[in-house]
Fold this protein.
Amino acid sequence: MKSIAVFASGTGTNFEAIACACEDGRIPARVALMVCDRPGAQVVERAARHGIPSFVFSPRDYAGKEEFEREIVRRLDEAGVELVCLAGYMRIVGSVLLGAYRGRIINIHPSLLPAFKGAHAVEDAVAYGVKVFGITIHYVDETLDGGRIIAQRAFPYEGSDPAEVHRLGQVIEHQLYIETIAKLIQ
Ligand code: GRF
């Protein structure tokens, strides 16, 4: 059985969807590790409920990004992780983690990249007046929401409520992430 890791900083609905898909066989892998940089985030509780080992840390307990990424890499290696899935991990991946896992780290982003990078993609797209929204899954490199695109799915929405776009997008995110991970892991 192949091992994957999921990184998250917040709510963790994508984490939950991935964990369930691993449990019921839609993804032929197990979530060997959940990594979270925010103690107290809801995703930590979700991992515990699924019995998934987690590494939860506070960046301020480390001298810098290189130090906590070295610890992350050590734990990924130890767990035999083959694919790292970022799911709401609100940090730019640094040289240590990329050096060890480049080409094996993917991210999900709530816009049709390269449009609307960053943490407020949905709000920015609504403010711009976009009528076709979407989700992107891409390989991670050292740039914000950069890296080669693996999968995209679009959906029309003509309103102006970001919360509604988040709701519509979330359903697509979960489906697309599960399908994409299943394909990549095979
Ligand atoms: C998702 O919208 C994802 O696209 C973005 O962060 C959000 C994570 O949501 N990168 P959740 O924590 O999985 O619910």
Notes: Residues 8, 10-15, 87-88, 108-110, 173 surround 5-O-phosphono-beta-D-ribofuranosylamine (CB under 6 Å). The first strand starts at residue 2 and ends at 8. Helices lie at 13-23, 42-50, 65-79, 95-101, 121-128, 162-185. The mean pLDDT is 98.
